[in-house]
Amino acid sequence: MLLERIYDEDLSQTSYLIACQASGEALVVDPRRDIQQYLDLAAQHGLRITAVTETHLHADFLSGTRELAAATGATAYVPGTGGEDWQYGFEAERLHDHDTLTLGRITVTARHTPGHTPEHLSYLITDGAFADEPGYILTGDFVFSGDLGRPDLLDEAVGMHDTRFAGAKQLFTSLKEVFLALPDHVQVFPGHGSGSACGKAIGALPSTSVGYERHFAWWGPYLKNDDEQGFIDELLDGQPDAHAYFARMKRQNQEGPALLGERTPPREVGAEELSRGLEQGTIALVDTRPVAQVHAGTVPGALNIPVLGKAASHIAWAFDPDTDDAELVVLAEDAATAAEYGDHFVRVGVDALTGFVPSLEGLPQTVPPVISPAELERQRSEGTVPRLLDVRTRTEHAAGTIPGAQQLSAGKVLFHQGELPAEGEGPLVTFCQSGLRNTVAASALRRAGHDVVELDGSYAAWAQWDAAQPDHGAQPGTADQGGTQHPDRSAQPGTTDDERTA
């Protein structure tokens, strides 16, 4: 048996290739939409991809099940569980609890494990060449290393009401009746790693075991003591923000993602064509340079996506293909680099990348406004009431923020503009932890027409400035205007912008 783990650092997402090397048949589970890596892997091992399936209707990325099946002639399988509202809208074979797929001597058994979503399936793998019972389980967004799939995502991202409580109860039952019914030696391969917003505190280990999770996961004692309410309370407490684009992913994955087919490489776009497109609004430029370079000058209205390794996450925050029909042109040294950005973009359903420019020479330039912590506080001391927007997560904001700042995470700002701080004196001043998330959010808001000033160095710089003041440490945790809090200055100033998808 061959089991290959294909991990996407951008979205902290995992897909798997399971194959019987004797028969040459392979199954891919939870593929992403840029499928070349699966084709290359199958060719490397002399395999035929004969089946493609997924664990559930994903919210954080656009599924490649249809794409890979169309490219290989494989049979597409999807969950048929969860009730009428959770049925897929495209042609595929439906799998239910205890249904099996066969790859030579390998048996793949679907188990219904609802909780994260109602239709969720996990897949037990039995290697018939060595055993007559399962030795592996692909758990999707059910069980992670040290954590569980969050049951509140449908409320948080899709707009449903109080489904988190039913989902939490379902998770408890799925753990009790399916997962913990397995022997301790069964190896667990989850659908996400550390950094994914599909869980609260997912571990970085690529795999775990039933026994390890049974004995050491936070939820183990609750199951051991049959304490369902205690389990629910801890599970739902402190879940991270869900990005706004998750609702679009759910819808598109259920309807069936558009097939990409053979993709045309990005073409080089001349300065004159780009300038005309920018002026007419038919082109949006993606500036891929680091924050400091962008702050020295960029094209008006450009979106700043400074890290290729997080391009999927960030473009989904900054560009909405449901409402924006502009073509995307990326700043890249060559067509191959531009195509890499395109691979990341299509993972979240942004298919609009058509071209690239190797430099900004000959294009109009503007310097995005920034403000230092000292200047911000000087203005406040003179009576200016800034419109402060903290684009970090709720958890980071609650741990300490600039007095008066309103929280709206970077993954929501473009889609929840009605929740921005009310008009006041001056522009909107935005910040994250160290500046990476902020540059993405600020560029998206500027392109949407907002007057935005970025706090230079973001919250980390402000916290350092604040700590150096003579009155440092006064009244930590006391309420300020707008109901926000002074930071607890004895603590570290939150997490860094390394950048996690949450």
UniProtKB/TrEMBL annotation:
<dbReference type="GO" id="GO:0050313">
    <property type="term" value="F:sulfur dioxygenase activity"/>
</dbReference>
<dbReference type="GO" id="GO:0006749">
    <property type="term" value="P:glutathione metabolic process"/>
</dbReference>
<protein>
    <submittedName>
        <fullName>Zn-dependent hydrolase, glyoxylase</fullName>
    </submittedName>
</protein>
<keyword id="KW-0378">Hydrolase</keyword>
<keyword id="KW-0479">Metal-binding</keyword>
<dbReference type="InterPro" id="IPR001763">
    <property type="entry name" value="Rhodanese-like_dom"/>
</dbReference>
<dbReference type="GO" id="GO:0046872">
    <property type="term" value="F:metal ion binding"/>
</dbReference>
<dbReference type="GO" id="GO:0016787">
    <property type="term" value="F:hydrolase activity"/>
</dbReference>
<dbReference type="InterPro" id="IPR044528">
    <property type="entry name" value="POD-like_MBL-fold"/>
</dbReference>
<dbReference type="Pfam" id="PF00581">
    <property type="entry name" value="Rhodanese"/>
</dbReference>
<dbReference type="InterPro" id="IPR051682">
    <property type="entry name" value="Mito_Persulfide_Diox"/>
</dbReference>
<dbReference type="InterPro" id="IPR036866">
    <property type="entry name" value="RibonucZ/Hydroxyglut_hydro"/>
</dbReference>
<feature type="region of interest" description="Disordered">
    <location>
        <begin position="466"/>
        <end position="502"/>
    </location>
</feature>
<dbReference type="InterPro" id="IPR036873">
    <property type="entry name" value="Rhodanese-like_dom_sf"/>
</dbReference>
<dbReference type="GO" id="GO:0070813">
    <property type="term" value="P:hydrogen sulfide metabolic process"/>
</dbReference>
<feature type="domain" description="Rhodanese">
    <location>
        <begin position="279"/>
        <end position="307"/>
    </location>
</feature>
<dbReference type="Pfam" id="PF00753">
    <property type="entry name" value="Lactamase_B"/>
</dbReference>
<feature type="domain" description="Rhodanese">
    <location>
        <begin position="387"/>
        <end position="470"/>
    </location>
</feature>
<dbReference type="InterPro" id="IPR001279">
    <property type="entry name" value="Metallo-B-lactamas"/>
</dbReference>
